[in-house]
């Protein structure tokens, strides 16, 4: 598959391991930005496993001898005496599970959906993750829409601001797919149902039973080069600022509400003293300017050079009483 996709040069295939044992905060995984989840499921949408006809072989007769004793056995068995075959489901890993009743099926689906939800919530914990896809080859809503709804309502999803990728935000191929999720399984939340994609074996689309939904993380963009017109605060899907119980806005950078810290009293006192010193300096400068302006030639001592220069200038400028 990697070769077909043409990504062999840039794709590293890791060893198989338990996803739930992976530490999202480790150096190896803390920068993971996207995850594709395709967990084990009931495989109820897989085509081909039920294509073979069901064969019922006759039981061997109890008495194979000839004569009247052999004729005493009924040649036909009544329809209600035919043993009904038990229902067997084969998951996507090829494991068979015998189901004797509908209760067994419900129990099996509950176990699978609980495991699927645990995987999805673990994926929400990757600190740099921004996109997650969740898919199954199941037609049962317990493994599909209900897992999505439970994941969206989980504490970790709300803390990390995960939401469903709306149909309007999907790429054209996903957005235009005609078969969507079941509204009844989404609590009649049409936006969630429309965001989910389904397919059925006989829905005319030419594919098997399948389900996929995408999640995106909002309000925590840490890329410094990314354009951000919403300011420093987190916002919900409607564009409103997210606030804590006290009404304080939550910062994108820290994920914590804004805190107002009282100014240190010493710093405040120092600032006041500096302001007083500046005002005193300005007053002293104004006083010195006034003193310079008030002193003129009339205050100079008689015989001073400045007074003589002024008198000489006045004599040179006098032009009266000429011949």
Automatic annotation (TrEMBL):
Q: In what residue span(s) does the SAM-dependent MTase RsmB/NOP-type domain sit? A: 1-218
Q: Which Gene3D superfamilies match?
A: Vaccinia Virus protein VP39
UniProt-annotated catalytic positions:
137
What SUPFAM superfamilies does the record tag this protein with? S-adenosyl-L-methionine-dependent methyltransferases
Q: GO molecular function: any one?
A: RNA binding
Family per record: Belongs to the class I-like SAM-binding methyltransferase superfamily. RsmB/NOP family.
Q: Tell me the protein's name.
A: SAM-dependent MTase RsmB/NOP-type domain-containing protein
Q: Which organism is it from?
A: Fusarium oligoseptatum
């Amino acid at each position: 598959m990697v070769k077909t996709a043409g990504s062999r040069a840039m794709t590293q295939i890791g060893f198989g391991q338990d996803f739930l044992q992976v530490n999202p905060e480790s150096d190896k995984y803390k920068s993971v930005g996207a995850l594709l989840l395709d967990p084990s499921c009931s495989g109820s949408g897989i085509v081909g496993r039920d294509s073979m006809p069901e064969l019922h072989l006759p039981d061997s007769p109890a008495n194979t001898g000839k004569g009247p004793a052999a004729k005493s056995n009924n040649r036909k068995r009544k329809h209600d005496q035919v043993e009904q075959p038990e229902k067997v489901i084969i998951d996507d890993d090829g494991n068979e599970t015998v189901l004797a009743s509908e209760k067994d099926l419900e129990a099996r689906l509950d176990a699978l959906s609980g495991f699927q939800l645990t995987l999805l919530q673990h994926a929400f914990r990757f600190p740099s993750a921004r996109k997650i896809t969740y898919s199954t080859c199941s037609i049962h809503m317990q493994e599909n829409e209900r897992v999505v709804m439970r994941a969206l309502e989980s504490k970790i999803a709300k803390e990390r601001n995960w939401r469903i990728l709306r149909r309007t935000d999907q790429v054209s191929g996903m957005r235009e797919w005609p078969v969507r999720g079941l509204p009844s399984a989404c609590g009649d939340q049409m936006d969630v149902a429309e965001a989910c994609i389904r397919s059925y074996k006989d829905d005319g689309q030419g594919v098997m039973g399948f389900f996929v939904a995408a999640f995106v993380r909002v309000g925590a963009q840490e890329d410094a080069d990314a354009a951000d017109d919403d300011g420093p605060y987190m916002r919900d899907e409607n564009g409103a600022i997210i606030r804590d119980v006290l009404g304080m806005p939550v910062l994108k950078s820290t994920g914590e509400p804004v805190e107002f810290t009282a100014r240190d009293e010493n710093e405040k006192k120092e600032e006041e003293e500096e302001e007083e010193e500046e005002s005193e300096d300005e007053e002293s400068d104004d006083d010195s300017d006034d003193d310079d302006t008030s002193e003129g030639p009339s205050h100079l001592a008689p015989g001073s050079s400045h007074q003589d220069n002024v008198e000489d200038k006045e004599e040179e400028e006098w032009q009266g009483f000429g011949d």
